[in-house]
Here is the input.
Amino acid sequence: MAEEILSFYRFARQEDPEKCARIFFDPAQRHGLLGTVLIAPEGWNVTLFGQKPAIDAYLAELASQPQYCPEALEIKRMRLAAPPFRKLIYKIKPEIIRFGKDVDIADGQGTYITAEQLHSMLRDHKEDILMLDVRNAYEAAAGTFEGALTLPIEQFSDFPEAIAHTKLPEDRTIVTFCTGGIRCEKAVAYLRSAGKNNVLQVEGGIWRYLEKYPHGFFKGKCFWFDERPEALSMN
Here is the structure.
């Protein structure tokens, strides 16, 4: 039976992070899924693994709550050959993705482009854009977009310091990207708060792009943090 990994996140203010954690964790436990549920006052970041019927049942259960239903989330799924997780856990953290600086995610709203739009831009107007990799240096070393600007950072919280010493072009559109999109949410908001208005982000990140264009402008391999084996396919 096919097994899949499921991933979604959202920046949405949580007055009761513990309650939010149980909303995502308890049905995952009931359906025998493995993975992590990360909750913070700023939102949630969920990555789960299990058999396809269990994943389907989990999403169906969430569908009973409008603010958490699949239609309200940027759902990403991938078929895998082996489990990337050993257990199911949830954690309450200060941030769902550690950045170390306060940013208003709303500053980045309206800056999304789809994988299809990115591919067209790289194909037809490559000289007009700068691809900015906001991931860590070792992720970029495994694979990145052709001609992308990479930063000498070990962790995402190094981004503000690194970008402060990086001259970004004023006459080109800057397109940020990361694995699944979550880091770009903060990177773009930070850049725009610093006066960079020519900044976009790839909706769904590298993951979404590779679903559509496995032999496109991304070269090398996409690095995964969760011991994820090589994907058999994306869907």
Observations:
- The chain has a mean pLDDT of 90.
- The chain has seven helices and twelve strands.
- The chain has two domains: 3-92, 105-234.
- Helices lie at 17-30, 52-62, 115-124, 137-142, 159-164, 182-193, 205-212.
